[in-house]
Design brief:
The protein has helices at residues 5-32, 39-72; strands at residues 86-89, 92-95, 101-103. It is mainly alpha-helical and 108 residues long. The protein has one domain. The chain has a three-stranded antiparallel beta sheet, with no helix packed on it. Strand 2 (92-95) and strand 3 (101-103) form a beta hairpin. Helix 1 (5-32) packs antiparallel against helix 2. The longest helix is centred in the middle third of the chain and has 34 residues, at 39-72. The radius of gyration is 20 Å and the shape is rod-shaped. The protein starts with a helix and ends in a 5-residue tail after the last strand.
Length: 108
């Protein structure tokens, strides 16, 4: 069963996007607490939340780079969508796990 484009994008960008959204939501919730109640909590919570936001951003950028290389035909090795093994035959690469196909790109 071949994955749709939407499923492929969800696998690539879903978890980094959820991580970034969760970190931003956490920042909003911590900043909305009353000033006297949360002075120390705000200081303690800001570091892991900023770390989660940075991690999600870097993860998203790396997946965008993998997608760019995949579509340009320069990605070698495992499938970028599921990490499965690729089988190449007759100019077509096929993922043995998720059945994603990619035509071989001619070298310039």
């Amino acid at each position: 069963m071949e994955m749709t484009r939407l499923e492929q994008m969800w696998r690539l960008f879903g978890m980094p996007g959820l991580l970034m959204a969760g970190a931003l939501l956490g920042m909003l919730l911590v900043s909305a607490l009353p000033e006297l109640f949360a002075a120390s909590l705000r200081d303690l919570a800001s570091v892991p939340l900023l770390g989660g936001l940075a991690w999600g951003t870097v993860w998203w950028i790396l997946n965008a780079w993998k997608l760019y290389c995949w579509e340009a035909g320069t990605w070698e090795g495992s499938c970028i969508f599921c990490g499965g093994h690729m089988h190449s035959a007759d100019g077509v690469s096929l993922c043995l796990a998720c059945s994603t196909r990619r035509e071989a790109q001619p070298l310039a």
